[in-house]
Design brief:
alpha/beta; 42% helix; globular; ACMSD; lyase; Amidohydro-rel; Amidohydrolase family protein; Metal_Hydrolase
Length: 299
């Protein structure tokens, strides 16, 4: 792999030392090429939601990105797709069905937007085998409690399908980001399997509290604890005991390929929290294996 020689070995050394069969990454991005190109252009231009230099480490063709994840030993991953406006979600879901069919190690991912017809196309995605959904409150600029989404959340809560939701106010606050809208959503759907992306940064403590209150709320590690994020919004060290106690509900996520550092750095960032090998094994594999019922992955 050009430019990444030796990195595969470093990633495999990490999980082999823990005695794992590999990694499960719940927050990776695969999407239609023209959409991904626009995302990369946004990062290159230091768009208003980033406002900083953000080099893309894994700017490769789709097949090379897939080959890299497999070389790393990532046994299951996602195709986090999300619309930034109405009229996109159903088209993205159609692409994701095809991607999942030709990529058996990808957990079939789907998305939605508050618009007429959302309930119908979400039900279609569930019927087509979607295992996980993505909601991007920041980029989509919508209130998760929008009336058009009420039946969608109800359907997903009933089906027990996890939803990775970018709802924290990092890297820049949005109109509907932060813990308050999500708190209202969970009060209405307490069994909703929400996975709070990026550990909810920068509102780490508020989202940890929501996870303590609601037994199906999880958080993913995406970009959290890395040098990049610690320099901007450091995780409060006083909260490490809570992170340890919630160990069964923390899931490995990375944001591959759109990260400004090597993949292995996310793993080392989680490891250096010092919460122990059992905690690491659960976060990097066991928790997601249980959540998604991945046969042969139980650990």
């Amino acid at each position: 792999m050009s430019g990444h020689d030796g990195e595969g070995r470093a990633v495999r050394d990490f999980w082999e030392r823990l005695g794992l069969p590999g990694l499960i990454d719940v927050h990776t991005h695969f999407m239609p090429e023209r959409v991904l190109a626009k995302v990369w252009d946004y990062f290159d231009s230091a768009g208003p939601l980033t406002g900083m230099k953000w080099p893309i480490t894994y700017r490769h063709e789709e097949e090379q990105r897939l080959a890299l994840l497999r070389e790393f030993g990532v046994r299951a991953f996602t195709s986090m797709i999300y619309p930034h406006k109405a009229g996109m979600a159903q088209w993205l879901n159609g692409w994701a069905v095809d991607f999942a069919r030709r990529t058996p190690d990808c957990l079939h991912t789907a998305t939605f937007f508050p618009e007429p017809g959302a309930e119908a196309y979400v039900r279609d995605a569930v019927d087509a085998g979607a295992r996980i959904f993505k909601s991007h409150v920041q980029v989509g600029g919508y209130d998760p409690n929008d009336p058009l989404l009420v039946p969608v959340w109800g359907l997903l809560a009933e089906a027990g399908i996890p939803v990775v939701v970018h709802c924290g106010s990092g890297p820049a606050p949005g109109k509907h980001t932060g813990p308050e809208p999500i708190g209202r959503l969970l009060a209405r759907h307490p069994r909703l399997r929400l996975v709070v992306a990026h550990m909810g940064m920068p509102e780490y403590v508020d989202f940890l509290e929501l996870a303590e209150r609601y037994g199906e709320v999880r958080l993913d590690t995406t970009m959290a604890f890395t040098d990049f994020s610690e320099g901007l919004t450091p995780f409060p060290r006083a909260e490490l005991p809570r992170l340890a106690d919630l160990g069964e509900r923390i899931l490995l996520g990375t944001d591959f390929p759109n990260i400004p550092y090597p993949y292995v750095h996310q793993l080392h960032a989680v490891e250096r929290l010092g919460l122990g090998d059992d905690w690491l094994r659960a976060v990097c594999h066991g928790n997601a294996a249980r959540l998604f019922g991945l046969q042969g992955h139980d650990s």
